[in-house]
Amino acid sequence: MKSKSVLPAALLLFACSSAYSSAWASDAYDGQWSVQLVTVKGDCDRSLSWDVAVASGRIAENGLFGQAAGQVDSRGRVRLQVLSGADRVSATGALRGASGGGAWTWPNRACSGRWSASRKA
Predict the structure, then answer these.
(1) 26 and 20 Cβ atoms separated by less than 8 Å
(2) Which domains does the chain have, with CATH numbers?
(3) Measured between alpha carbons, how far is residue 33 from residues 9, 10, 19, 112 in Å?
(4) Any alpha helices (H) in the chain, and if so which ranges?
(5) Considering Cα of 17, then 23, then 27, then 32, what sign does the dihedral take?
C-alpha cells in the first residue's frame, strides 16, 4: 500500500542546506532524537515515527524526499522546511532538555498536525 503522506514523512527524513544562519547554529541539542509525527487534519498518514540526528544545530541527513533546510537554535527553537516540486511542508516547535514538540503543515494537501520528540540515550 502506498503511503498517503510521503512528504510529511520527509519532515523527519531530510538533508539540511549547508547555507544556514549562524545565529541559528547550536550544539546544545546535538544527538539522536526519536520523533513522532501525528496528523490532526487532512488525509495524510495518521502517525509516523523516525530517528533524527541533530549536528551543529542542523538537522542531519537521514534520507531525502525533497530539498530541506532545518535547524535548532541555542534556545531549542526548531524550524524546518521541505520542498518537493510544488509541495512545501513547514514545521516549527521547540526542544527543551530531552523532549520537545511543535506543529507541521502541508498546505497543498490540506494536512497539518503535531510532532513530538525525545532524546535517545
Answers:
(1) no
(2) 6-119 (2.40.128.120)
(3) 15, 15, 23, 21
(4) 6-10
(5) negative
